[in-house]
Amino acid sequence: MNDPNGMFYLNGTYHLFFQHTPFQSVPDFSKMHWGHAISNDLIKWEELTPAIAYDEKGAIFSGSAVVDKDNTSGFGDGKNVPIVAIFTYHDMKKEQAGAIDAQSQAIAYSLDNGKTWTKYSNNPVLKNPGIKDFRDPKVFWDAKREQWVMGLAAQDRQHFYGSKNLKDWTFLSEFGKDVGGHGGVWECPDLFPNKSSGTDEEKWVLIVNINPGGSNGGSAAQYFVGDFDGKKFEMDPLFTKQLQKEKVAWLDMGRDNYASVSFDNVPDNKRVIIGWMSNWDYAQQVPTNQWRGSTTIARELKLIKKEDHYSLISTPVSELEKYTSKSIKKKKIRANENITLVKDNKIDLTKAVINLNLKNLEAETYTFVLSNKEGESLTFGINNSDHYLFLDRTKSGKNNFSEKFASTITKAILDANQKEASFKIILDKTSIEIFFNNGEKVITEISFLTAPFYQTGCGI
Question: What burial letters (b/e) apply to 268-299, b meaning 16+ CB within 10 Å?
Answer without folding.
Answer: eeebbbbbbbbbbbbbeebbeeeebbbbbbbb
